[in-house]
Design brief:
There is one protein chain. The protein is an alpha/beta fold. The protein is 55% helix and 13% strand. The chain has ten helices and five strands, in the order βαβααααβαβαααβα. A five-stranded parallel beta sheet has the order 2-3-1-4-5, sandwiched between helices. 29% of the residues are buried.
Length: 198
Amino acid sequence: MLRIGLTGGIGSGKSTVAGLLALHGAAIIDTDAIARRLTLPGGAAIAGIREAFGDGFIDASGALDRERMRSLAFGDPVSRRHLEAILHPLIGVETARQADASNAPIKVFDVPLLVESGRWRSIVDKVLVVDCSEATQAARVVTRSGWTDDAVQRVIAQQASRQARLSCADAVIRNEGLTMSELAAEVAGLWTHWCSPA
């Protein structure tokens, strides 16, 4: 059994790589998806968020107002740490539950803030970084989400630098100018390597 930490900056193509790994049979444990479920109406994080930030950060449906929280968290490091203190323990519990429930030979932990957290390096066997230039990151996010370039740049500035991610990588997929078939071939090559006897 192999535990892979998958990370990359916003717009790097990390989620696409996770999907390709799933096609090979990997169990994907997506910490962003877990965080979203925790902040839906009735989610385990809602009470703590309401207590820490007030009713104004909970929308009419009872879910986290993600846009408002994003604006606050990326503009105020103290608020971001408060939010992380609520979410991260809950994410940790659900991550462990999903990992324990899977019999897949390779478990991939999709963690956008793997480098920033400081703890994942000791949890996983290998770190896979999906990398591209910041210009490519910004162009992809603007195209897919309609964010302004300024909003994307603020997110990039809050994430670990490319160099910091690359320095902790055991494997890197440089997702710059690749076609989908070329990206799939890169993933297939890694999968074959991981599954080969040592």
